[in-house]
Fold these 4 entries.
Entry 1:
Amino acid sequence: MISGEELIRKVTHRAITRLLCSVFSIPYSVFEGNKVYYQPVFTRCSMKTKTLKSLRVGYERPDNLESIDIDEIHNIGVSEMQFLDFLKDSSAKKVDPRNNLSYSH
């Protein structure tokens, strides 16, 4: 039997994958997390702390990134941290904002 924690993880991963497939206009069945490139976009809130504003994501190429607003992430029922953890766990590649080159964690 599957644990409650494992069930939540699976549902979360499925929701994130479906959102990314929608953004990339690809079928769910062909999605591969290691082909995702991402670039977090932060803003400063009133207490001068960094807060995630949006994520720029691309599939197979780091030079054509689409933006996912933080509200879209919240609308699928996941937190910023869950989304970023999913990307890391999926071996997605983070894009360096200074030169749009990807690098591994």
Entry 2:
Amino acid sequence: MIFIDEKNVEWQNLKAMKNIAAIKDLANNMKVKLDEEKPFGIKPDWYSTSINVYKKHVIFGETLLDDLNEDEQKNLAAHEFSHLKYHHFYWIIIVSFGIYAIVSLVLAKYVFPNELSLFIGLIPLFAMFIMIGKWQEYQADMKAVSFTKDKKSMLSLLDKLYQMKTKQDAGKLPPPTIMERVSRILHPSLVNRIRRIEKQPNLWFLNPF
């Protein structure tokens, strides 16, 4: 889940999506409401995905889609739909800033009765933001599998994402953007995501790292 500039996004030519009808059916089955005019977009020369929680559309990187088969694309879409379905963006904001407000108020009253409490409160804010972000990625993976009923394709998808990341780090692909680097902080390692699906599909909440 990465937020990007939508200027170069193609909304009409969606040929990179190998079975758009099946992905639309999946969204309906998951009861995910997408934008009627622009439910999906394709961004050229991009290796990731993005959702717009306000406009309710999903943007796929064309280069990433070209690397995936039909079932892997379906699992990728299901993962992004899960972020929308379970309102992950709003929850991470509400909980993180809620913790920040409580900690800052307690510090201001009992420890640092000045502006210092606001800065110290940023520590649990960022910690919660990262932890919740990782939990949400695990949940999105597990929910995607529960809707597609295709664990094999999800594992194959994650393996390809891992190979892509390895190539980016080795300089064989264009380096990740700043937003992609930030997103990596909020994501568990791909190795751990694969491990959760293989061995502990229902224990995504136990270890965010």
Entry 3:
Amino acid sequence: MLLLVDNKTLRVLGRIDHSLLKKFLHDDVKIEENSDYFFIDYSTIDFNLSYTFDLFSFSDTINIGCTITISKVYDSFGNFLTEGIPQGFKTICYLTFFPKVPQSFRNLPILKGWEINNYSISLINSKDISSNEIANILEDLLILIYDDFKNISSSTVNRISKRELIKHITDKYHIRDSNEIISIMTRKGLIREDENNKIEFFRK
């Protein structure tokens, strides 16, 4: 269960049937490779245009490694909302993903309206998650990072510099406070830093 304030999440119900786009938006639309239009459930707070999420939750699992930006917002009448998503509105949003659209979003049902279903995805910003919840997902993150370095390393050495680890976490997984992540991982006994600022990984 996510230990965060529920109203800081945005629920993506499904992909919009592209044949309905012109009907809803009253205009021809262009869809970039790393973007798509989605039906978004009622929002309990305002979200500004260009607001970016760095995590998403699907089937009680937090997913990392992708940023999701609100690029365009339309109300249920097809009006473009220049300020973003207003509180209490259900909307159609054009979301932009970096580096690419995750498969979970491509697998969402294609809908003709705001239909509640069991496949919705919640968008989250890491700053709204408690440190305990972050700690709970670190073991999965550790395995991903460990495998990354194991695959690119020419040996079986399981040590890297702290600077390398910070850069890797920041660049690939879009985690803002990499130092805090490393501190939590250290406290949990997942990694160890030696006197030469080298990080040793302990595989669980």
Entry 4:
Amino acid sequence: MQIVLVHTYHKDHKILSNITTKYYESMGYKVDRVEADFLVNEEATYRNEFINRNPDADYLFHIDSDEVITKEDMLKAAAIIERVQLDVYRVSIIDYISPTEVLKEARIHKPIMAVKRSKTRFTTNRNVKGCTGHELLPINIHHLGYLTKSQCDFKINNYMARYDLHELGNVTNILNKELKTADVPQEISIIIKEYIELVNPHSSSSVEA
């Protein structure tokens, strides 16, 4: 299984992409990534490019660079995918609004997380055609895309520029939902701490690694 990471040209996103790439590579996964400008091309274009660039992969995990999965959950997902042999899967996503706070309720990540290379192609974002199954994997994605104000502002401005009212509404909805204290896995805590220190080296993160 290979990992496909897509990140935007925003400086915070590049920093996070470098951290998450090293993280996945440390687990032994091959990581293929690209800097995407969604004002030029649809997300589906980049994801299909990765499918074509990785002809030997049985499965590709399509993960944004601000999305992190623990090693335990990666192994669990791989075992289930190997056994069940569907083409596509969904997962639960935990949105971090601060290093210690997340949305009270996890979202079900509608976009596809794992795609069998030989059969599928993306149509819009992570919606796919020519596939079987949309099983929900019992794992979590830790979404770090709302940790900094500049990230949030970039998302809003980007969706406004693209006239993508659906995604703009999703961002606004997420930022206004009820929060709870996060039960942060240690490896996720380490990533958050490193990221916050690199984005704002003068900040004092409350995350303990």
